[in-house]
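In the laboratory, one determines a bound structure by crystallizing the protein with its ligand and collecting diffraction data. In a computational setting the workflow is compressed into a single prediction: the sequence and the ligand go in, and a structural description comes out. We illustrate the idea with magnesium ion.
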Amino acid sequence: MRIILYLGKGGVGKTTVSASTATSIARRGQRVLIMSTDVAHSLADAFSVELSSTPLEVEKNLFAMEVNVLAEIRENWNELYSYFSSILMHDGANEIVAEELAIMPGMEEMISLRYIWKAAKSGDYDVVIVDAAPTGETMRLLGMPESYGWYSDKIGGWHSKAIGFAAPLLTKFMPKKNIFKLMPEVNEHMKELHAMLQDKSITTFRVVLNPENMVIKEALRVQTYLNLFGYKLDAAIVNKILPPSSADSYLQSLIDTQAKYLRIIENCFYPVPIFRAQLSTEEIINTDKLDNLSKQIFGDKNPAEVLYINDKTQVLAKVDGKYVLSLYLPNVEVKKLNVNIKGDELLVDINNFRKSIILPNVLIGRKTEGADFSEGNLSITFSS
Ligand SMILES: Nc1ncnc2c1ncn2[C@@H]1O[C@H](COP(=O)(O)OP(=O)(O)OP(=O)(O)O)[C@@H](O)[C@H]1O
Ligand SMILES: [Mg+2]
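The predicted complex, in structure-token form:
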């Protein structure tokens, strides 16, 4: 069983690349489920079919579904939802506002995660591919399994508090089946999913990006947070690459700019492998075109494989009360090393290549105290 999650900034090509990966794996004979957890779905457009939250077999071995989180909340979580909105209305919020607010923080993410858990546990698929929402939302989703225990405690807390001040009202709204009894069960599922997501032989994450400044920064943020959560990035897919050269001077200058950013991407993601896809002149929809795109990206490689694994790529640890960030840079001979912080970015200049890392929140505002390179590892110590 494999789980592959595609992440990246809005519009970079996550849906297209994940749909093409799924198609090519299915055509190699494995059973694949591709699911979109983004509220703004476009998976159905990529396959030119209608999709729902029940998997549809698009072609042999290829199943697709779109998780409709809001409908799910309305249907299956209705009890909990009306319970919270009743508390909020009691506090003076109007009905519509109360309904909106009653979608607890993390609830949408939790429902998406439950779908991933269900698909992975069902035994129906060899590979589950997740086409996720743009980075910000997905990072909350990925931090969720760990923080879920905290949420469920908090809900338990609200429950006992609410009973006190709103008892008469609550008897009217109180769910027939006690939803709070369900919480520990969901908690168990989240723990199981968390273990699956952290198991590098099961789950790998892939970032999709374009050769553009802001997109690269976002992709680096993805890398930082994946490392922080203990998840493995096994590939970076650079999409929408222009042809190598053009007679048109306007196009050529765009190509030159892309070439500059491609070099930056190579440095920044090293040693994670980079795959490339050209900007196509036609829309990449339907399985034949999607399969062709996958061939362009992965060549003869089976995209279901774990494409790269290294536990040391980027490790943040606390040593003697100080944060130490270690970067794995194999086959690099360090002659000149310079480390600088610019806002939330750590700029590491090694010889004449620059690697940039987006700092996690805990490191922002701290100064570097020293850097040390040995056995392919660069360790940077931050002030406490
Ligand atoms: N290599 C490519 N060549 C040409 N067009 C592409 C390529 N990759 C993606 N596109 C197009 O770019 C648009 C955005 O792609 P896609 O929907 O896959 O991105 P996304 O990252 O999933 O976006 P969102 O964040 O909105 O979900 C779509 O119209 C898609 O058809
Ligand atoms: Mg998309």
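Confidence is low (pLDDT under 50) at residues 162-177. Keep in mind that any predicted model is a hypothesis to be tested, not a measurement.
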